[in-house]
Amino acid sequence: MIEWDDKYSVGISRIDDEHKQFIDIINKAVATNEQSDDPEELKEVLHQITMYAINHFSTEENYMIEFNYPEYQYHKEEHHDFSKKVIEYCERVNAGDSQFANEILEYLKRWLINHIQVTDRKYIDCFIRNGLK
Ligand SMILES: [Fe+2]
Predict the structure, then answer these.
(1) Could you tell me the distance, in angstroms and rounded to a whole number, from the CA of residue 89 to the centre of ligand 1?
(2) How far is the CA of 96 from the centre of ligand 1 (A)?
(3) What dotted CATH number matches 6-129?
(4) Which of 4, 44, 66, 85 has the smallest CB count inside 10 Å?
(5) How far, in Å, is the centroid of ligand 1 from the Cα of 128?
(6) Ligand 1 centre from 38 Cα, in Å?
(7) How confident is the model over 75-84, as pLDDT tens digits?
(8) InterPro entries given for it (predicted)?
(9) Where are the chain's structural domains?
């Protein structure tokens, strides 16, 4: 489980709120995996993570475009890599391979925490300068 901590805050309320929800969904996936052997349930939470990620990434990317953020391309690629990986996992689970649920969840947790603390921090100055709070 990931617990929200102030060290994850980027100081912009809309983005912090979305990151908190992102963490909640991943925690829900971890709980589902611990409590159930039903691959349908894993599929369902992975689907929710994918949908949430797409939505959240577009929030950030739209601001980057609007504010002419210089590292937009690089940041977008990191988002893209994540989406690709989750879709790949979904396909494996759909094909009946759910043995590696722990690996998926470890990847998701690690990626999100690292992304929030490293890559997302880089846009803070730019976003705040452009009026976000
Ligand atoms: Fe991001």
Answers:
(1) 20
(2) 31
(3) 1.20.120.50
(4) 66
(5) 15
(6) 31
(7) 999 999 999 9
(8) Haemerythrin_Fe_BS, Hemerythrin, Hemerythrin-like, Hemerythrin-like_sf, Hemerythrin_metal-bd
(9) 6-129
